[in-house]
């Protein structure tokens, strides 16, 4: 029986996101939902010398509060690309695989995608190639009502509450004094583990 997965779009999301994709056969990314603030849809967390650091993509919400995620445009009046790329460089320049993958991610972030969902899809598809996870992802055409289905993770992967996902520890660049920091943005895993990244998702 094929394993179905329904997830939100996300900006360089945590390892849990890719673990779910890896285990699924039918993967659907929601593009007909209303945009939700302060979620992984436009933010991620990397590990800096001072602990987890938030990186957020600024977006236009317009005059109407309820805007479909597929219509959310990126705000380039703020220098977020430079901020994100410099933060990644500061955090991971000394990591074992930074030089192998940073240029790939930098190129996508620098492409000035008009819509958030296009930026996210470009990054997600590239990350899947890096992880050697061969999956076909489809964007939804209609909004599926929330019915607590076991395959629906659109609102379960969120920075607002601790995840039940258990990640296999790996060596991170910074020791924050609190031990391994799990479920950060997938870039933390890729820059630190490279070809072995899939062993820790």
Explain how this protein is built.
This protein is of the alpha/beta class and 201 residues long. The chain has one domain. The protein is 28% helix and 14% strand. It has 5 helices and 7 strands, in the order βαβββββαααβα. It has helices at 15-23, 80-92, 98-109, 116-130, 186-193, and strands spanning 4-8, 26-30, 43-48, 51-56, 59-60, 73-74, 137-139. The strands form 3 sheets. Strands 1-2-7 form a 3-stranded parallel beta sheet, covered by helices on one side. Strands 3-4 form a two-stranded antiparallel sheet. A two-stranded antiparallel sheet has the order 5-6. Helix 1 (15-23) links the parallel strand 1 (4-8) and strand 2 (26-30). Helix 2 (80-92) packs antiparallel against helix 3 and helix 3 runs antiparallel to helix 4 (116-130). The mean pLDDT is 94.
Index terms:
201 residues; alpha/beta; two-stranded antiparallel ribbon
Topology:
Layout: E1 4-8, H1 15-23, E2 26-30, E3 43-48, E4 51-56, E5 59-60, E6 73-74, H2 80-92, H3 98-109, H4 116-130, E7 137-139, H5 186-193
Terminal CA distance reads 23 Å
Give the CA-based shape: globular
* Largest sheet, spatial ordering of strands: 1-2-7
Radius of gyration: 16 Å
- Biggest pleated sheet: 3 strands, parallel
In terms of DSSP E residues, the strand content is 5-15%
Count of strand segments = 7
Helix content estimate: 25-40%
Secondary-structure class: alpha/beta
| Number of helices in the DSSP assignment | 5
Number of domains: 1
């Amino acid at each position: 029986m094929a394993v179905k997965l329904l997830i939100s779009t996300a900006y360089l999301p945590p390892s849990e996101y890719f673990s779910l994709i890896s285990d699924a056969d039918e993967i659907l990314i929601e593009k007909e939902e209303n945009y939700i603030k302060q979620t992984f849809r436009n933010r991620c967390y990397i590990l800096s010398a001072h602990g987890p650091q938030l990186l957020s993509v600024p977006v236009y919400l317009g005059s109407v509060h309820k805007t479909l995620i597929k219509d959310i445009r990126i705000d380039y009046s703020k220098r977020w690309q430079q901020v994100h790329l410099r933060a990644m460089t500061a955090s991971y320049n000394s990591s074992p695989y930074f030089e192998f993958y940073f240029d790939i991610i930098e190129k996508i972030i620098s492409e000035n995608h008009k819509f958030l969902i296009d930026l996210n899809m470009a990054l997600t598809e590239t990350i899947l190639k890096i992880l050697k996870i061969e999956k076909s992802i489809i964007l939804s055409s209609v909004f599926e009502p929330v019915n607590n289905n076991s395959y629906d993770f659109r609102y379960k992967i969120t920075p607002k509450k601790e995840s039940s996902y258990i990640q296999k520890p790996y060596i991170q660049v910074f020791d924050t004094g609190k031990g391994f920091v799990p479920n950060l943005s997938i870039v933390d895993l890729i820059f630190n583990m490279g070809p072995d990244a899939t062993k820790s998702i």
